[in-house]
Amino acid sequence: MNLSDRLVLLLIVAGISIIILGVALTIPEIQQTSTAGGALIFIGPIPIFLGWGASAEITLLLIVLMLILTVMGLILFRSSRRSSS
Known about the structure:
Order of helices and strands: HEEH
Distance between the termini: 32 Å
Strand content: 15-25%
Strand order of the largest sheet: 1-2
Low-confidence stretches: none
Helix content: 55-70%
């Protein structure tokens, strides 16, 4: 395992740890107050949508819209790279 592989693994572990820590710190806040929010988590190619609070439907709709726009952007970026090569 070379240095770049170790760095990639370290960044992945650090990212997952930060996500878990953020969720753990947010859970007590959600239970005590009336907040609203949403999250999108990618596990491989599978997106998981989470939403809570009064405006969860709107938040989830915006997350789905952002996902669609991101995928469209990636497809357009790939097609433009292929046509320019």
